[in-house]
Amino acid sequence: MIGWIMALRNRLFDSGLLKQHKLRDRVVAIGNLSVGGTGKTPHTLFIGKLLSQKAAIAVLSRGYGRKSSGFRQVDPLDKAEDAGDEPLMIKRRKPEWTVAVCESRVEGAHRLGALQKPEVLLLDDAYQHRHIDRDLNILLTRYDAPFTEDRPIPLGRLREGKTGAQRADICVVTHCPADCTAVAQGELKKHIAQFTNAPVFFSRMRSNGLKDANGEVEAEGGKALLLAGIAEPASFSRQMKSRYPKIEFEELFFRDHHRFSSGDIETITEAAERNDSRIITTEKDHARLPKELIEHPSLALSYESIDVELLEGQALFEQILNDKLRLS
After folding, report:
1. pTM here?
2. Rounded to an integer, what is the distance from CA 179 to the centroid of its chain?
3. Is the pLDDT reported for residue 314 higher than 90?
4. Do residue 179 and residue 221 come from a single domain?
5. Which H or E element spans position 49?
6. Host domain of residue 243
7. Are residues 251 and 185 in the same domain?
8. Are residues 66 and 213 in the same domain?
9. What is the pLDDT of residues 49-91, one digit of tens each?
10. Total domain count for the chain?
11. Are 104 and 13 in contact (CB under 8 A)?
12. What is the CATH classification number for the domain harbouring 316?
């Protein structure tokens, strides 16, 4: 059902019956066809870093999971309940960037334009949000769960039909394994080419190691509680166990964007005490964890910092960005 609804909606936008707002700024939309788990936030950071070498950028997000409403510029000292965990993670990583949240991206974009006049606006998780015209659509899909093998909700995890991929200017296959071969890449490109002519790139998550409030943390052996509230916790678990084979992990997972209650804090603390009082979590979760956990005097809490890197073709990727956005 949702596939038919989205197909009709897309036809209305394509025909001009539903209005698209054209901004003075150049606009990049980053998103996916599926529900969560493709690595939108790390890829927004990756693309933003490339673009910020040539242009002033701003990032606009809906701010999913926040309690606040309306337009809000994100501050590094904000709480996730005010700004949303993903925008807050971006702002803490890149405090010099302008990051904002707003339920209405049209309103948010106009407010940002009046305040900062960015040269390039990055719309995080906005592939289906077509009320703003964009210069560049970047579609993300997971290597281990490509949209080509999926179906629309409720039969699968797609927000719209596979034909939505034809709007992409670039397609990035994310979360590629270390042993991703040229043959495997070629096969996946063939499947993707049935739905879009966009060039296809492959990326992986590169670990920057474990960090806490004071900097880097040594990944010693022993026990640790693996804590996560993300869309694909099993993927995070596999990566951590592979990177830190000397650590014996106990897992405690919550739903994506979970708001931690006082009962959750008690459960997490008890589990951590069974595991040498060590907690290892994701950077996204760290932005959302309650102060009581982060500043707990007897717990050692660290998070894994990750960055995105392309397996190959970064020069071509940057050239497409610059050409599409008219950046010299």
Report:
1. 0.93
2. 23
3. yes
4. no
5. helix 40-51
6. 207-306
7. no
8. no
9. 999 999 999 999 999 889 999 999 999 999 999 999 999 999 9
10. 2
11. no
12. 3.40.50.300
